[in-house]
Amino acid sequence: MAKMFYEKKRGFKYAFIFLLPGLALLITFIIIPFLSAFYLSFTNQRLISRLPIRFIGLTNYKKLLDDDLFWKGLFNIFKFVIIVVPLQTAFALALALLVNKRIKFTKFFRTVYFMPTVTTMVVVAVIWTFLYNPEGFINLFLQKMSFGSWQPVDFIKNENWAFPAIMFMSIWQGVGFQMLIFLAGLQEIPVSLYEAATIDGANNWQKFRKITLPQLKNTTAFVIISTTILAFRLFDQVKVMTDGGPNAATYTVVLHIYNMGFKRQYIGYASALTVVFFLLVLAISVIQRFLLKEEREVS
């Protein structure tokens, strides 16, 4: 009994040692900055100012309620999440199913699909800005496919096309990462399940619906939650391609925080925006986790 207790205690000790580096990074780069932002959100802190810092209570949070740009950015980011997350998840699963088949050049296709993910978003955004140009490749391709009936569009400067253009580019850039996660999940499914289904006369759709999807439930939950968090952080491509325009059609909350904090130097107000947005994303992630967990327990 004493030996078992000693081994268990030693196991906790080693576990804590391995967790310590990650815990230190978590405290340094997430918890401490959040607590600092929470404190600053109750002050009139400016980025560069000779005026002393004053405690102003909930003034910044009251100001947030009347901030039209904040609500416009929040609406845009929810629209982005609602459209991009399901589409990117579905495309990633489709690509994973494709590259998981025993066909020639599978490794080549895996590399090609994953390449945009390892490319810096700023570089990707600059390249796609040229592609979306009225004289760019996309307009030229659409003209050829429509036999000349397509009229060139400046996607980035068009209020109706700018945000869909960013959505399409974001899906293309990020789908490779989710594809690899799904691919790892697919390769963990026992082949015997598919063999048994074949013997029972199941077709490909029935195998996918009754075997593949249930076996990928945990993987799908991870992909959805991680993609949602990444989608809420939309900033780089908007900053490079449109800077929130035209007419705030692509404006986001993170861009608003950046503008308030670094352009207008309202650090206190930017901190209040950060705290509210962080808690909102955290709440959505917890709800997603709870719903997906409940689904697994029922099944």
TrEMBL record:
Protein origin, superkingdom: Bacteria
Locations listed in the record: Cell membrane
Membrane topology term: Multi-pass membrane protein
Gene3D superfamilies per the UniProt record, alphabetical: MetI-like
GO biological processes: transmembrane transport
Predominant location: membrane
Keywords attached to this entry: Cell membrane, Membrane, Transmembrane, Transmembrane helix, Transport
Gene Ontology CC terms, in alphabetical order: plasma membrane
Domain ABC transmembrane type-1: 74-288
Family affiliation: Belongs to the binding-protein-dependent transport system permease family.
Name by which UniProt lists this protein: Sugar ABC transporter permease
Organism: Kosmotoga arenicorallina
Organism placement in taxonomy: Bacteria, Thermotogati, Thermotogota, Thermotogae, Kosmotogales
